[in-house]
């Protein structure tokens, strides 16, 4: 089933608040109990818990809206190293490298749903399983991957702007979902954004 076939609004989950005295489980196996003694933030303006067993990052991903504007500007700056490997009326494919690891960006549509494009990217190394389709692990620099994807998206939107009515793309990793939302806001102002779990559906302004 295509993502465009089950677009619905869903109720948002509100995370619980934390207070001094609350207990958390930390460590590799989450089996070490620690007590929250206070709160601070790191150099990226991300929340950090001060506990009786040291400081603990509250979120594994970075929350994009908390990052400094200069960091986001660099992240979405154009001019990254990538190239188109194929462009057609119903498909566009771009390739790039992060270190020694090849990546592929692909946007495609179907003749029975004109104007609706699905977007994906994946580690393009041989032997990668389908589970690596949306992964950023193993690159050593996920920010560079996202920055390049943003640059490709900018070029894709310019090249196919008259053929796009709706975009559907997926961020399976929670650590990338906030950056996807920020990318949509920056590159596609005026588009309607609906998020359903890890799926983002953007509808072009009329």
Mind explaining what this structure looks like?
With 206 residues, the chain is of the alpha+beta class. It is built from 3 helices and 11 strands, in the order E-E-E-E-H-E-E-E-E-H-E-H-E-E. The protein has a domain at 74-203: 3-Layer(aba) Sandwich (Aminopeptidase), CATH 3.40.630. The strands form 2 sheets. Strands 5-6-7-8-9-11-10 form a 7-stranded mixed beta sheet, covered by helices on one side. Strands 1-2-3-4 form a 4-stranded antiparallel beta sheet, with no helix packed on it. Helix 2 runs parallel beside helix 3 (174-187).
Mean pLDDT: 79
Shape: elongated
Helix content: 10-25%
Q: What's the architecture of one domain in CATH terms?
A: 3-Layer(aba) Sandwich
* CATH overall fold name of one domain: Aminopeptidase
